[in-house]
Specification:
Helices cover about 35% and strands about 20% of the residues. It is of the alpha/beta class and about 500 residues long. The protein has a seven-stranded mixed beta sheet with strand order 14-15-16-13-12-18-19, with helices on both faces. Strands 9-8-7-10-11-21 form a six-stranded mixed beta sheet, sandwiched between helices. A three-stranded antiparallel beta sheet has the order 5-6-22.
Length: about 500
C-alpha cells in the first residue's frame, strides 16, 4: 500500500457528508491496464461504520413518513442525472475496473433502468383490500419499510449492482448503508454524489468502505434489518448464515457456471457471435457470463469456426476505441485465471485457443488475458467445476438435447442458462425441464429487465427473493395486515362474544 499524499482519497458518506476516514488501513485503487494508482480507499474504522448506521437509523424516523410521491420524484431526478453524466461515469468505471467504455456505459445503463423502475414505487408498493370479510369487517395489508438496510456489492459491476440495491430500498421507505467493492469504489461514490444532488436527504444513503470487518459489522449490527449481497459463493454463504443467525433478512446472489446448449438447427452465425460475446465480453468477469457451451450432435463441427471468431477479438485497454476485451481487474485475478488454464491442460483438456500473455502495445503492465477455449472437457475437471471469472470457455459435447439438459441439471449452480435453436418444441422442452432460475432462448445472457426480478436459483442464490423488481419491494418491506370494524353511532350493543370467530 502507498501513503503518497498526492494520490486522492476515497471518502466515506455519513449523514449527507463526504468524510475523510481517520483509519490507518488503506488500499490502492489501481488501473488494471496500466497499474497506475488512481486513489486510496480507506478501510473504515468501527466508529465510522457505526456512525453510518446510526445516521441511517435516525434518518429513518422521518424518511419512512415521506410521501410516496416525494420519494418517486427523487428517483425521477436521479435517473436524469445519471443519464446526463453517463459518459463521465463510464470513464471512471473503465479506469478503475478495466472493462471497455461501451461495456461500462452498459453497466451504468442497466442500473439506470432500475432507478427508473424505482421511480414507479407508487404502483409497486400497493397493499391489498378485502371488503366485508365478515359482518362489517374489512381486511387490508400495508407494505411498510423495515428500517436500516445494507448492501455489499462486487467489483465486476460497480455501477449496476449498487443501483440494483439502494434505489429500490430507499424508494420503499428504508434508509441504506452501502459497502461497495474496495477494488473499484470510485464510480459508486460518483453515483452517491448524484443521489444527494437528486434530493436524497442526509442519512438516508450512507457509504462505508472496507473488507472482512465491514462485512461482519453489517451482518452483526442490531440496527440493520436486511442485507443484500452480490459476489462469490464463499463470501455470500458467510453473509447469509451470519446475517440470518442475527435475525436479519438476507438475499445473496452468488457464484455461477452457466451453460448454453447449441442444437444443430440453430442460426449458425448469429449463435457463434452470441457465444463469443457472452463468453469473452467483460473479460469473462460476469456472474451471468457463458463459460460452458454444449455442442449437440452435428453442431460439434462448429468448434473451428467458434475458435476463429474468438481469435478476431481485439484485446486492449478498455479506454481504447475498438477494444473487445479489456484487462482482468487485478494482478491476482490474472494469476488465478492463468493458473486455472494451466490446471486445465494438466488435467487433460485440449487447449484449442490459448489467450495467455497477449502482447498489447502501449500497455505492457496490463492484466491481459485473451479468449481461451478448451475442448474435450469433462465434468470432473477443475476448469469445469470452478467459476474461472475470466475469458475462458469450456466446450462439451452431447449426443442429444436430453443428455445436455441432464448435464446442466447435474451442476450445482443455477444462475442462468440458454439454448440456441430454431425449434419451438425443443425450446419449450428445455425451459420446462431445465432446473435453472434464468433461461435464455436464443439469448445468451438472460438477465431480466427491472419489471421482473433477477431469479438465479440453487447454489447460485440464498434467500427466496431476488434484487430489483417486485421481489425487491417484498424483500425491503414488511407486510402488515389490518382487520377493522366500525360501528354505527346508534348501533345497539349485542351480547358479549367470547369466541374468536368474526361473524
Amino acid at each position: 500500500m502507498t501513503t503518497h499524499s498526492a494520490i486522492p482519497t476515497v471518502k466515506l458518506l455519513i449523514n449527507g457528508q463526504f468524510v475523510e476516514s481517520t483509519t490507518s488501513q488503506w488500499r490502492d485503487v489501481v488501473n488494471p491496464a496500466t497499474q497506475e494508482v488512481l486513489a486510496r480507499v480507506p478501510f473504515a474504522t468501527t466508529e465510522e461504520m457505526n456512525a453510518a448506521v446510526a445516521s441511517a437509523k435516525e434518518a429513518f424516523k422521518t424518511w419512512r413518513k415521506t410521501p410516496i410521491g416525494v420519494r418517486s420524484r427523487i428517483f425521477l431526478k436521479l435517473q436524469q442525472l445519471i443519464r446526463d453524466n453517463i459518459k463521465e461515469l463510464a470513464a471512471i468505471l473503465t479506469a478503475e475496473q478495466g472493462k471497455t467504455l461501451p461495456d461500462a456505459e452498459g453497466d451504468v445503463f442497466r442500473g439506470l433502468e432500475v432507478v427508473e423502475h424505482a421511480a414507479g414505487i407508487g404502483n409497486l408498493q400497493l397493499g391489498e383490500l378485502a371488503n366485508n370479510v365478515a359482518g362489517g369487517v374489512d381486511t387490508y395489508t400495508l407494505l411498510q419499510p423495515l428500517g436500516v438496510c445494507a448492501g455489499i456489492t462486487p467489483f465486476n459491476f460497480p455501477a449496476m449492482i449498487p443501483l440494483w440495491m439502494f434505489p429500490m430500498a430507499i424508494a420503499s421507505g428504508n434508509t441504506f448503508v452501502l459497502k461497495p467493492s474496495e477494488q473499484d469504489p470510485m464510480v459508486t461514490m460518483r453515483l452517491a454524489e448524484l443521489a444527494l444532488e437528486a434530493g436524497i436527504p442526509p442519512g438516508v444513503l450512507n457509504v462505508i468502505h472496507g473488507g472482512v470487518d465491514a462485512v461482519n459489522l453489517i451482518c452483526d449490527h442490531p440496527d440493520i434489518k436486511a442485507v443484500s449481497f452480490v459476489g462469490s459463493t464463499k463470501v455470500g454463504t458467510h453473509v447469509y448464515n451470519r446475517a440470518t443467525q442475527n435475525g436479519k433478512r438476507a438475499q445473496c446472489m452468488m457464484g455461477a457456471k452457466n451453460h448454453a446448449i447449441i442444437l444443430p438447427d440453430a442460426h449458425k452465425q448469429q449463435t457463434l457471435n452470441n457465444l463469443v460475446g457472452a463468453a469473452f465480453g467483460a473479460a469473462g468477469q460476469r456472474c451471468m457470463a457463458l463459460p460452458v457451451v454444449i455442442l449437440v450432435g452435428e453442431a460439434q463441427s462448429w468448434l473451428p469456426e467458434l475458435v476463429e471468431k474468438a481469435k478476431s477479438l481485439k484485446i486492449n485497454a478498455g479506454c481504447e476505441p475498438g477494444t473487445d476485451i479489456g484487462p482482468a481487474v487485478s494482478c491476482s485475478a490474472l494469476d488465478r485465471i492463468s493458473s486455472l488454464i494451466e490446471q486445465g491442460v494438466r488435467e487433460g483438456a485440449q487447449l484449442v485457443l490459448d489467450g495467455r500473455n497477449p502482447q498489447v502495445p502501449g500497455y505492457p503492465h496490463g492484466n491481459f488475458v485473451g479468449p481461451t477455449i478448451f475442448s474435450a472437457v469433462s465434468t470432473e475437471m477443475t476448469i469445469y467445476k470452478e467459476e474461472i471469472f475470466g475469458p475462458v470457455l469450456c466446450v462439451l459435447q452431447a449426443a442429444s438435447l436430453d443428455e445436455a439438459i441432464a448435464l446442466i441439471n447435474a451442476n450445482p449452480n443455477g444462475n442462468g442458462t440458454a439454448i440456441f435453436t430454431r425449434s419451438g418444441a425443443a425450446a419449450r422442452h428445455f425451459q420446462e425441464e431445465i432446473d435453472v432460475g434464468q433461461v435464455g432462448i436464443n439469448v445468451p445472457i438472460p438477465v431480466p429487465v427491472p419489471i421482473f426480478s433477477f431469479s438465479g436459483s440453487r447454489a447460485s442464490k440464498l434467500g427466496d427473493l431476488g434484487p430489483y423488481g417486485k421481489q425487491a419491494v417484498q424483500f425491503y418491506t414488511q407486510t402488515k395486515t389490518v382487520t377493522q370494524r366500525w360501528f354505527d353511532e346508534d348501533e345497539v350493543g349485542g351480547p358479549v362474544n367470547t369466541t374468536i370467530t368474526l361473524k
